[in-house]
Amino acid sequence: MPVLETPRLRLRALEAADAEALHPTLSDPASMTWWSHPPMESLAETRAHLERNAAAPDWRSWVFAPREGGPAIGFVAVGEKRNGACELGYMIAREHRGSGLAREAVSAVLDQLFASEGRRRVFADTDPDNMASRALLGRLGFTLEGRLRAEWETHIGIRDSLIYGLLREEWLSRPPRD
């Protein structure tokens, strides 16, 4: 997995050793509201979860941290679903939300997927009430493609799912951003 750099971030492969840095977010009930599983209850549970994710053959996860150094503040995960199509997931620590860092990290991964790897499609599955995620996907140029009713049974109940998609040519032809 390549290391990716942006003006403010460095993204590298997820490791079990990132558990201490990511545990405050993965154990935070507010941060985990929209995930398909409840908050992690212990550092050991977070470490085991990250070990499974790091070893999953069909998923790749980048953690991101400030470029000048420091612990991980979030991650971007990519699941191989079909030839040329990937699912995208992401999370950022609460104290960094609204800073544009999640957009910067996800953009770096999208550049990797579309420009470097030639993927044709990336999609994201999000809860209809997760307004922050929906806004980020919109800023990145994703299109709302559909709603799957009663798709997930989660720790907060049965939930619908919104599917957002982005095509390679849409990403590569977007106007430059500052």
TrEMBL record:
Keyword Ion transport: no
Entries under Pfam families matching the protein: Acetyltransf_3
An annotated Gene Ontology molecular function: acyltransferase activity, transferring groups other than amino-acyl groups
Domain N-acetyltransferase, first and last residues per copy: 9-169
Entry keywords, A to Z: Transferase
Keyword DNA-binding tagged: no
PANTHER family: GNAT FAMILY, PUTATIVE (AFU_ORTHOLOGUE AFUA_3G00765)-RELATED-RELATED, N-ACETYLTRANSFERASE DOMAIN-CONTAINING PROTEIN
Name assigned to this protein: N-acetyltransferase
UniProt organism field: Sphingomonas desiccabilis
